[in-house]
């Protein structure tokens, strides 16, 4: 396996939040060092990394020095500026690759891409002007939801239309940013597939998890999800379809709506995903190690699930419950080492485990 | 729980090897920062720690600065000089405490302590001179084994006596260091109990594991061990007895010989232990997190085992097998990030998991 990055090599990680932190720990388990690149001071990932560079994504010299110090570059978030990616890629490989970033950085591009693969998505229309908005509302109707094409997360950059009368206000909310109007989909529940693809094209998917959101932020993921065997198969196959189409290397989160008409793709994230944290306790090789294996050119783990798990996010004041959680049996706590607790901030999560039932 | 060290606090770890490394990762999972104190440059634990101090145990100023920067101090090895412990303890609590170190740093003291608890140990006699050696051989006989009282590990500092004729050569091997002559025990196999005691006196034991050594170094640990239900109960109760007698806080490794006459205590180690690495894949809370929970004053996890596990150490050239191990199903690999592979050096381990059978 001459393509395998040797142990002792250094993996560069763009972004120093909790995902970078857990990627860094997984990399260490395989004998790799990590180097975190993060604009903010004292990033959570820096507490468990060999090196940290504190610099902005517009600091080309810092990006180049970072790239020169590592063997391969990966990332914990998709909204990395193109100029930064250009500077990095001139020095070292970026995995997952640029095409996955290009597609997922823009909701319109992403929906066009998914539709082009023959996958179902919610009805959508591009909105860059008041004229676009009028025709989008005519086409999609209401209720619907206007979302910025770029830089949205955890419900931010979104405005709901209860009726066509809300169109003007929603457009103002976008602050002039290009947007997409999405029709509401009637779904029974949301699931996500955490899928991985290796450098040789092999694909391994974890069991789909069922997601519940609260205030626009993921609250819980439960495995197994409430899916029929054929729905589960559909979910895994369509995820594999997406990864293959992108010649993807790494772990991707694929969010799906379960509807009477089948599975509808909500969105994709070219990285480890909050809805995959359950794998830390449910699988021999979790999503973080799976991602590191992929970007390092190592064989993927098989991703089999040995337990039923409910992952619960700890957001803001949920931290007050930590003492009682530490007294629960079969609860695995993961805290992110963030200095300040703020409303809506992801502070940690807990995986509650029971023996596998089916 | 006002005694609980708050998340965001810093745990100081003496020793930067693989045990310190895995303790550091476990601490991060609970939101703690870690600071490693280690005389050697570029310690494996430093790759996943917030801070590293590179200084010797005779550098009192460095020890004091280290102690001032942390909230509690623990360690990955027992042979810490008393002067260093004095300097540290003047500033911050050391857990497990001094009594456990005093007992386990000297084989004679340890055997006297264990015998005093009514536990069985191999026949032993103190050897500080040729006269002692003569009377020890007369008392213990041969085959037997002469071991330095302090600083032995992985079979180092030991000399075997096939007969009394080997006595002089064995004594020369000790290079004048005080030693203990131990009688050979006829045992069917060796097991160890990884036991934890919390700051409030609660005790939790992991299932005993069965150990196989090769060239004096642990090769594999298998759970469940080959023990009857009553032997398993004896093993756990005697381990709890030891921890309670020491008013112990943290994880301890207790090695036991299984004999026709019952369980004989081989040795104790006041720290996380190589024979407890299987807990990383067999339990919701592993020995490293259990140790951190104890020294941080947090409630212990229950330590239940959900899988059968065989832990195999990767020593020296075993690293050549890493590519094939990465292709195994249900094998969890843990590499230590050591720069150089040397014969006899512990480079990593692999936990192979199967569903729990009993």
> What percent of residues of chain A are in strands?
25-35%
What's the helix count of chain A? Answer: 11
Q: Can you tell me the number of structural domains of chain A? A: 3
Which class of the largest domain in chain A in CATH terms? Alpha Beta
Give the % helix of chain A.
25-40%
Rounded mean pLDDT score of chain A: 95
Largest sheet of chain A: 9 strands, antiparallel
Organism (chains A, B): Aliiroseovarius pelagivivens
Binding site for ATP (chains A, B): 107, 147, 152-158, 182-185, 190, 213, 266-267
Subunit structure (chains A, B): Homodimer.
Family (chains A, B): Belongs to the PurK/PurT family.
Q: What can you see in these coordinates?
A:
The structure is a homodimer of 358-residue chains. With 358 residues, chain A is of the alpha+beta class. Chain A has 3 domains: 10-94, Rossmann fold; 123-183, ATP-grasp fold, A domain (Dna Ligase, domain 1, 2-Layer Sandwich), CATH 3.30.1490.20; 189-355, D-amino Acid Aminotransferase, Chain A, domain 1. Chain A has 11 helices and 17 strands. In chain A, strands 9, 10, 11, 12, 13, 14, 15, 16 and 17 form a 9-stranded antiparallel beta sheet that branches. Chain A is globular. Chain A starts with 9 loop residues before the first strand and ends with a strand. The mean pLDDT of chain A is 95. The interface between A and B is large, with 48 and 48 residues.
What attributes does this structure have?
homodimer; 358 residues; Dna Ligase, domain 1; D-amino Acid Aminotransferase, Chain A, domain 1; 3 domains; nine-stranded antiparallel beta sheet; four-stranded parallel beta sheet; 28% helix; 29% strand; PurK_C (chains A, B); ATP binding (chains A, B); PurT/PurK_preATP-grasp (chains A, B); purine biosynthesis (chains A, B)
